[in-house]
Write a structure and sequence with these properties.
The protein contains three helices and ten strands, in the order ββββαββαββββα. The chain is of the alpha+beta class. Strand 1 (9-14) and strand 2 (19-24) form a beta hairpin. It is globular.
Length: 201
């Protein structure tokens, strides 16, 4: 089945070989297509009655993740980037980073995007990091193509830095994450400290 960028696809069946069967809602065509070229979206994206959630998506190269001793700071980011880029055969893996008010979702499609046959069983990697567990984000000051964010383990005091590389500047990605933090914090304040009207009789 032929698909173009932006085509909405209804998935009828998903196989373990990273191929799916579905319907192209734009053309009405039915058939198989590689899941590497599709991104999951929420039904709420098409429901006008549901409050819209701001989402921004970026095509990046995922360099890797390393455990860190501290939860924030440019020194933590720089050390992580140097450690990852000094690894032998370090090559970025194509991924989509989705930034929303809920968190950061990384879909690593490098393994599946290189598949030429349907008999491969290597799955795509899909990770989600809640914003409440993201403690720091910045781009590398020596080369702004590199950026990263630090996450806290949900149940223990352990931290990891996840590093990405953009084709050009990664500043727009870091700024998008900053805007998501602002919206998340604003919603938290409104929920934790609601303002009630006081009427004097």
């Amino acid at each position: 089945m032929e698909v173009d960028v932006g085509d909405p696809i209804y998935v009828q069946k998903e196989a373990e070989d990273c191929w799916c069967e579905g319907v192209n809602l734009r053309t009405g065509a039915q058939g198989a297509f590689p899941s590497a070229y599709a991104v999951d979206v929420e039904y709420t994206d098409f429901d006008s009655a549901t409050p819209k959630v701001k989402r921004e998506r970026f095509l990046l190269g995922y360099m890797g993740s390393v455990e860190t001793m501290w939860h924030k700071g440019n020194s933590v980011l720089c050390q992580a980037i140097r450690k990852i880029t000094e690894r032998p055969n370090c090559k970025p893996q194509s991924c989509i980073l989705e930034v929303s008010d809920q968190g950061l979702r990384m879909v690593d499609r490098a393994k599946s995007s290189t598949m030429q046959t349907r008999d491969s069983s290597t799955p795509c990697q899909d990770y989600f990091y809640s914003l409440k567990n993201v403690s720091f984000c910045a781009f590398y000051p020596d080369d702004n193509r590199y950026m990263g964010f630090v996450t806290k383990h949900p149940t223990c005091q352990r931290f990891a830095c996840h590093v990405f590389k953009a084709n050009e500047s990664s500043r727009p990605v870091a700024e998008a994450i900053g805007r998501a933090f602002q919206r998340f914090y604003q919603k938290y304040i409104e929920t934790a400290y609601p303002v009630e009207d006081i009427y004097i009789e």
